Amino acid sequence: MANRIGLSLLMLLCSLALSAQVPPDSIRIPQTKVKTAPVPTTPKVELQLPEAQERVYVPRQALLWSIVPGGGQVYNRRWWKVPLVFSAFSGVVAVLDFNQNNYERFRDAYQLELAGEEHEFSDLGYSADALRSLRNSFNKQRQTNYFMLLAVYVLQGVEAYVDTHLRSFDMDEDLSRWQLSPQIMPNPTPYGQSSPAVVLQFQYSF
Description:
Layout: H1 2-20, H2 59-65, H3 71-75, H4 82-115, H5 128-167, E1 178-185, E2 197-204
Antiparallel strand pairs: 1-2
């Protein structure tokens, strides 16, 4: 009985000694994989400014805008010309109003003078002929102002129309088409002798 207990203790000691000699690296501990949430990626947005398109100016549109004085200049974006147009109109209208008022005054005075009644020029001693002459003079100037007003109205429309055409004019800086060169030309004299003359020849190639 004692031999069996001793043998059992011996076997237990041997097994403990063998387990102590096993290297720790040989023991594999199962590793658990940790799942990480995917990082959201923001899409790349490329910001591009829209290209400015060159404006096309149509002469017909400029002419239609010119129905309103200064409208053609506004269409062509010639802002500095608008005050000039209105200044021209204002000047003609002011002179027209002056001549219109004086024409009506002398017309009424002439009619009252013929009727033998008093009028605003009676103290100045104007005769009927003088009143008629002054009336006709202011009437002529008044009619001239109406034509000037029409001319200013037409000119502002023509200016806007021509300006629109010139916007599409070729402003190429290439001067190779323009050629200016000296040329020697014969110059005969009455005595049969010829003396050469130097002239400048101008050429433009289309």
